[in-house]
Design brief:
This protein is mainly beta and 485 residues long. It folds into three domains: 146 residues, Immunoglobulin-like, CATH 2.60.40.420; 133 residues, Immunoglobulin-like; 129 residues, Immunoglobulin-like (Sandwich). It is built from five helices and 31 strands. It has a seven-stranded mixed sheet, with no helix packed on it. Strands 1, 2, 3, 5 and 7 form a five-stranded mixed sheet that branches. A hairpin with a 2-residue loop joins strand 16 and strand 17. The longest helix is centred in the N-terminal third of the chain and has 11 residues. The N and C termini lie far apart (45 Å). The N terminus is likely disordered. Bound molecules: CU-O-CU linkage and copper (II) ion. Copper (II) ion binds next to loops.
Length: 485
């Protein structure tokens, strides 16, 4: 089987570069190893054939006031992604994407993960501030047949987090094939706000895919992925009442950015980002998001007439692709007492003096590296002191290819584990709204430079930082950071 073969290749290969022969000939577009098998034909696209599901909320096995225990079996399942076709996927608990875990601040979540797949896995809580041994580090894998219990303290403010695979060299393919799910952390402040809740608080997990005409979900380069999935279905429709909705948008693509807007250009209100609620809401008309990023927005559908439809589109799609992502079908007006308050959360604390400055150069060509090195779990790239505030300058040195060619692999999405950061500068300027608030993932377009600052903690131990274009991190665009006391 492909999985087995892939695993064996990994053991045999000296380095990631040998594994993933990125191809410069076709411009900037980079095929993964699995694409060398000639691709058959992609399944035809007929948008808005499915109703959009909302991932189900996982019920705890047991819970107390201070702790909740969950159990998930990682296993293969057959699902319908494109109408009428069956695709084999890798899942948490049999659903695609995985079930949503709802957590609240101050109450620990314990997840027992059982690996019934034929590949190694490691479960990482993206945006979670957790101890190193529960972080799902690349080498800290669950081998087939084994299990592992992860503990998440939830000692941080409300935020839209997610859990996903992180096994060394395998994360891109594992996440692509389905190993991702949501983790919605709430807190008292968030619950006190008059924001839309319940059925009006809806996650949109957006990602590209290539489904073959026979249903096979194929892991391949993004420019060969014409399908766009929301909550596991190809370009679905979603029935909404003519009222406000909170939409938590995730870019769960392994290798692609998108630029989302409503087809009529309508404005919406952004209330949160990676690290949780913004201090104040902002009005936006477009979201540029790269892998790993989240945007929490409120959309008022009462401005549309009953019976009308509004399409969410991706203006970052290739010219050969369809721009539609999903369609909202507006129904009746209902009572709506929700609103977006002027103040959402307290301002993040003032950053202390930055004691350490570090520089990072990130590139895909000719090899996927950070500062010229590909990830080596035995090599410590950064040693940071617990509680130290550092300033990191990150440069994307990949340059634009010929105009019009797919440029997904010239973009990087810099992500750190353990702590959130703030974006201080983008290309020497003060950052705009898309970099506002507490972030754990920052987008770097071709040739861009960002300056970020973070305080390392609250735990010591081994962690990683990496590009969240997972094809890149799987290929080595990752570094090890040890936080020491
Ligand atoms: Cu969501 Cu280390 O990643
Ligand atoms: Cu990258």
């Amino acid at each position: 089987m492909l999985n087995r073969r892939h695993a064996l290749q990994i053991t045999a290969a000296a380095g990631a570069a040998a594994l993933l022969p990125w191809d410069r000939l076709t411009g900037s577009s980079a095929p993964a190893a699995t694409t060398t098998a000639a691709a058959a034909e992609a399944a035809p696209i007929s948008p808005f054939a499915h109703a959009m599901p909302v991932p189900k909320v996982l019920a705890p096995v047991s819970s107390t006031k201070t702790s909740q225990l969950y159990e998930l079996r990682m296993r293969e399942a057959q699902v319908e992604i494109v109408k009428g076709l069956t695709s084999r996927v890798r899942t948490y608990g049999g659903t695609f994407p995985g079930p949503t875990i709802k957590a609240s601040q101050g109450r620990e979540v314990v997840v027992r993960q059982i690996n019934e797949l034929s590949v190694n896995t490691a479960v990482h809580l993206h945006g979670g501030h957790v101890r190193s041994e529960h972080d799902g580090l690349p080498m800290d894998t669950i081998v087939p047949g084994a299990e592992r219990t992860y503990r998440y303290p939830n000692d941080q403010p409300a935020a839209s987090l997610w859990y996903h695979d992180h096994a060394h060299h395998l994360e891109a393919e594992n996440v692509y094939l389905g190993l991702h799910g949501l983790y919605l952390l709430s807190d008292r402040n968030e619950r006190s706000l008059p924001l839309p809740t319940g059925a009006h608080d809806v996650p949109l997990v957006i990602r590209d895919a290539r489904v073959e005409a026979d249903g096979t979900l194929l892991y391949t380069r993004p420019s060969d992925c014409p399908h766009m999935l929301v909550n596991g279905k190809e370009r679905p429709y979603f029935k909404v009442a003519a009222r406000k909705y909170r939409l938590r948008i995730y870019n769960a693509c392994a290798n692609r950015y998108f630029k989302l807007r409503f087809a009529d250009g309508a404005a919406f209100t952004q209330i949160g980002t990676d690290g949780g609620l913004l201090e104040q809401p902002v009005t936006r008309t477009e979201l540029l998001m790269l892998g790993g990023e989240r945007a929490d927005i409120v959309v008022d559908f009462s401005r549309y007439r009953e019976g009308s439809s509004i399409v969410l589109e991706n203006t970052g799609a290739l010219s050969t692709e369809r721009p539609e992502v999903m369609r909202f079908d507006v129904g009746r007006a209902t009572a709506d007492h929700s609103y977006v308050p002027r103040r959402l959360a307290s301002a993040p604390p003032v950053l202390p003096r930055r004691t350490v400055q570090r520089d990072f150069e990130i590139r895909t060509f000719p090899a996927m590296t950070i500062n010229g090195l590909s990830y080596d779990p035995e090599r410590v790239d950064v040693t940071a002191r617990l509680g130290a505030t550092e300033e990191w300058t990150i440069r994307n040195v990949d340059v634009p290819a010929a105009p019009g060619s797919p440029d997904f692999h010239l973009w990087h999405s810099f992500h750190t584990h353990l702590t959130f950061f703030r974006v201080l500068e983008r290309n020497g300027q003060r950052p705009g709204i898309r970099d506002a608030g507490l972030k754990d993932t920052v987008t770097l377009g071709p040739g861009e430079t960002v300056k970020i600052a973070m305080t390392w903690g609250p735990f010591t131990g081994e962690y990683v930082y990496h590009c969240h274009q997972l094809g890149h991190s799987s290929g080595g665009q990752m570094g090890r950071i040890d936080v020491v006391g």
